[in-house]
Amino acid sequence: MRRPETTYSLSQLYSGAIEIVARDYGSALEIDGVAARLNTSRRQLQRAFTEIGGTTFSRHLTAVRMAHAAELLGDPSVTIGAVAWRVGYRHQAHFTKSFRLHHGALPSVYRRRVALPRLAAQLRAARVAR
Q1: Calpha distance 129→94 (Å, rounded)
Q2: Of the candidates 86, 83, 88, which has an alpha carbon nearest to the alpha carbon of residue 27?
Q3: Residue 32 parent element (H or E)
Q4: What pTM was computed for the model?
């Protein structure tokens, strides 16, 4: 059984890390840097993610990046390379592999099958609402 103050501390670390990831997902985030920003150790932050969030720092960061990437792919004027860069990947090939593993499709296929039809539906709905 954990002491209540330990659980509270882990919750605070987890919340702080979640905020940092939400704000800075497009930069080169690593667990050591986030831990330093929160004045804690890498191990304590790992524990916070595991025990409070039920995930790992890396998985959470990837999920946030992939959610933003999926949104950006809805804009046909943004290249896939630019999407990769904006969400924190410096190599398009690494982004493409991660995206495929996360969403089950290459970014170009996802854009054609999911993102662009969704954008078209939103535009039609906006026209009808006028």
Answers
A1: 41
A2: 88
A3: helix 31-37
A4: 0.85
The single-letter code of the amino acid at 97 is K
pLDDT per residue as tens digits for the range 101-130: 999 999 999 998 887 787 788 888 888 877
| pLDDT value of residue 6 | 52
Domain boundaries, the chain: 1-55, 62-130
User: Do the Cβ atoms of 49 and 60 come closer than 8 Å?
Assistant: yes
How large is the angle between the packed helices 57-72 and 4-24, nearest 10 degrees? 30
Instruction: Output DSSP code: residue 18.
Output: H
Q: In this structure, which topology does domain 62-130 adopt according to CATH? A: Arc Repressor Mutant, subunit A (1.10.10)
Structure tokens at 81: 């390379």
Q: Label residues 98-118 b or e (16+ Cβ within 10 Å = b).
A: bbeebbeeebeebbeeebeee
Residue carrying structure tokens 């410096």: 90
